[in-house]
Amino acid sequence: IVPQVFEALGLPALVAKWRDPARRCSNLDSLLRHSREYEESAFEAGEAATLSGLILHFERLEAEKLDLCYPPLGHDAVTLTTYHSAKGLEWPVVVLSGLDSSRQPDMWSPVVTGGGKTNADPLEGRTLRSWPWPFGKTDGDFPKPRSGSGLEDRAWESAEGRERTDRDTQENLRLLYVGCTRAKNKLVFAHRADKCAWLAQLTTVDSLLKCSLGDGEHGLPEIETSFVVRRLDASMVEACRVAATRTQRWLSLSGVANPPEFTARFHPPSRAPETARAMQVHAEELPGPSFFPSGAGENQYAAIGDAVHAYLAALPSMTSIGATEKATIAARTLAAFSVTGILSPADVVASGDRFVKWVANRFPGARWHTEVAAGGPRTAGGQWQGAIDLLLRLTDGSAVIIDHKSAPIRREYCLAKARQFTGQIAAYDELLRAGGEKIHSTWIHFPLAGVMVQLA
C-alpha cells in the first residue's frame, strides 16, 4: 500500500522539484524500508499487517529511538549489506570483503537430495538425510560441532560428503558472481595478502589479476579495463579516517540542522490570524435591545454561542411558521447545548427575526445558503477548507458573506471584536474569488448584541 500511495501522489517526481531532494528521497526509502520490516515482523508473529498497526509501529520506533534514516542509495552514501541481500541491486562502486571465507560443508543439518527427474513423479528418488552429531557443540554466539573425534573427516570423505562439498562450492561461486556483478563502475577486492580462499575458487583468478605485479594500475589482456593493486598498512589509518557523524533519526527529524519548512495541507479559515491588510470597518445596530446573559459564566459562552448559531442556521426553514413554533425550536437548541434557563428562547427568536428583516431590507430578493462548505487554494500554500455560516446570492449573481459570532458580547465591544476576524473574512474572500465568484460585501453578525459589522 505504501508504494502505491507514493505513486498515486507522484511523490518521487514531486520531491525532485524541492530543495535537498536527496534527503527527501532518503525519507521515502526509509519509510518503505520501515514498512517492509513491520510487515515481515507481523507475518513472523502470525499477526495481520494493517495501516493502524504500521502507525503504531512508527510511534514505537520514535519512542525507542529506532527510527533510523537509512542512507539514500547512490547519493554519496555507503551501504553495508550481505552478498545475498545485494541480489538485484547495483552501486557505482562495490567493495567485496570476506574473501577468505572458507569452511567445510555442514554435514549435520537435514538435507534433501534427488528427485525432479520426471514430470510424472517429481518426488521419485528424493531422499531426506539427517545425520546427528553426538559430541555436542562449542559455547559462544556461533557454536560449532566439537572437533577431535575424527568423525567429521570421515563424513566429508564419504560419497554424501563429496556431493555436499560440490554443491556448496557451486553455491559459493554463484554467490561470488552476485557480488562481482553489483558494481557499475568499479569493483574492489579487499583481503589480506594470501588470504583469499573464497576468491581462489576461481581457477584463473591468479593469472588474470596478478597481484605480484606490485602497486599501481595494470592492463588486462583482451578486456577493455584495467586493475589497480594497492597495499594498505596500519600507518594509513589516520589519513583515511572520516569524521564520524551522528546517526540520523527520521520520524522526529532529530539531527537535522535546518529542517525544511512545513506547510499543512488544509487550513480552516476560522483559525486564520488577524490580517495586516488595511480594512474599512463599518458598524450598524439592529433594532431592539442587546441580549446579554449576565448570569452566565465565561465557561458557558461557547455553548451559548453554539446554541444560537444552530438556531440561525435553521432560519431559512422557518419562514412560514409562527412565533410559538420558533420559540419551541429555540428552546430545543438551548437544551441541546445545556444552556436552558441562561438565555430565554424569546431572546433567541427576537435576534433571528431582526436579522431576517435586516437581510430583507438590505438585500431584497437574496437567496439564503447556510453552512456552505467552502474550499480553495491558499496563497501562502495549502488549501482553505471550512464552512461559511451564511452565503447570500444576490439577484445580480454576486455573493454576500456573513459570519455569525454568536457568543455573548456587549454592543460597545463589537467593532473592536470584529477586527479580530479580518483574517477569516479575507480567507473566505480569497477562496471564493479563486472560484470565480464576485463578492458584493462581507459582514460579521453579532446576533445577541444586535450589531452588523461590514469589513471591506
Which key features would you list for this structure?
456 residues; two-stranded parallel sheet
Word description of this protein:
The chain is an alpha/beta fold and 456 residues long. It has 13 helices and 13 strands. α9 (301-313) packs across α10 (323-336) and α10 packs across α11 (345-362). The two termini are 48 Å apart.
Describe, in short, the structure shown.
With 456 residues, the chain is an alpha/beta fold.
Averaged pLDDT: 86
Helix-strand sequence: HHHHEEEHHEHEEHEEHHHEEEHHEE
**Class of secondary structure makeup:** alpha/beta
Distance between the termini: 48 Å
Specify the overall morphology: elongated
Beta-strand segment tally: 13
Identify low-pLDDT runs.
none
Q: How can the largest sheet be summarized?
A: 7 strands, mixed
Please bin the fraction of helical residues.
Answer: 25-40%
Strand content: 15-25%
- Counting DSSP H or I runs of 4 or more residues, the number of helices is 13
Write the layout of secondary structure elements.
Elements: H1 2-9, H2 11-15, H3 21-44, H4 51-63, E1 91-96, E2 111-113, E3 127-129, H5 151-157, H6 159-180, E4 183-189, H7 205-208, E5 216-219, E6 226-229, H8 237-240, E7 266-267, E8 281-285, H9 301-313, H10 323-336, H11 345-362, E9 367-377, E10 383-393, E11 399-404, H12 414-419, H13 422-434, E12 439-446, E13 451-455
Parallel strand pairs: 1-4, 7-10, 11-12
Antiparallel strand pairs: 2-3, 5-6, 8-13, 9-10, 10-11, 12-13
